[in-house]
Predict the structure.
Amino acid sequence: MTPSRSLLLLGTVFVIVLAIISAAQSAPHNDCDCHYQTDKGGCVITRGPAAAGFKCRCRVSRFFLITHCIGTRIGCNAGELCPANCASKDCCLLANGNCDGY
């Protein structure tokens, strides 16, 4: 395989992975977002779930030199207090995700 063909293949794979990551972040009913704090090496919730009864689980995703966080809305367990729009460290910890950016 020639170097230019290898580079083209690598670029294509890179674009496909970025498209998959973008689609995962904009999935329906996923109204929470997390941001990677480079200086602290972890995630923070930037937008908590709009409805009460849900929490936002952040996880770190890495692809080559790109590091970012993905937030996923999950239902709260019985007895958990999950207010709407919660983006605090306590709400992050409740979801058992990566909260190292706080």
About this structure: The first helix runs from residue 3 to 25.
